[in-house]
Every structure is written in C-alpha cells, then in structure tokens.
Design brief:
2 helices, single chain, FAD/NAD(P)-binding domain, mainly alpha
C-alpha cells in the first residue's frame, strides 16, 4: 500500500515539486543520502530529478541505487508483500 507514488518526466521542474513537498535542498539540488533518500522518510530522488542534468549512465546508476533502496525500505516496513517469494 502506498500513500502516493510520483514519477517526474518531461519538462516540469523537479525543483518546484521538491519545494512543494518540503524536501531539503542543497543549493538548487535535492539533498539525498547515499541511499538516494531525501529528508522525508520513504521519499527517494534519482537522476535529473535531483536538480542537475548529468550523463545518462550516471542517472541510470542513481535510479538503480534508489530502486534497490526503495525495496529495502519497503521490506523494513509492514506494508511490504513479496508475492514472488516462496
């Protein structure tokens, strides 16, 4: 169960969205830890949505890191159900 899931694609500013959510900023970048989590528990940011335009390979790596850590975060909470596990 999720309260919400947001994916930002296109031309709208991720920084405007981040400010509305109350995410901590580091200059004009969304501040994340080494797990790509923001200051709001359960909110992750990766790639260009963190506020800077970088090479695609770096963004893909950020996305993979964030995805792995989202799964770990969900597994630590009781809302996680792994339907593929036996």
């Amino acid at each position: 169960m999720f309260d919400a899931a947001f994916m930002a694609c296109g031309t709208s500013s991720a920084l405007d969205f981040a400010n509305e959510l109350g995410l901590e900023m580091n200059g004009n970048l969304i501040a994340v830890d080494d797990k790509n989590m923001t200051n709001i528990p359960g909110v992750f940011a990766a790639g260009n949505c963190m506020g800077q335009c970088r090479q695609i390979a770096r963004n893909v790596g950020d996305g993979c890191n964030a995805t792995v850590n989202v799964i770990k975060y969900l597994k630590m909470n009781e809302v996680y159900m792994d339907f593929g596990a036996k």
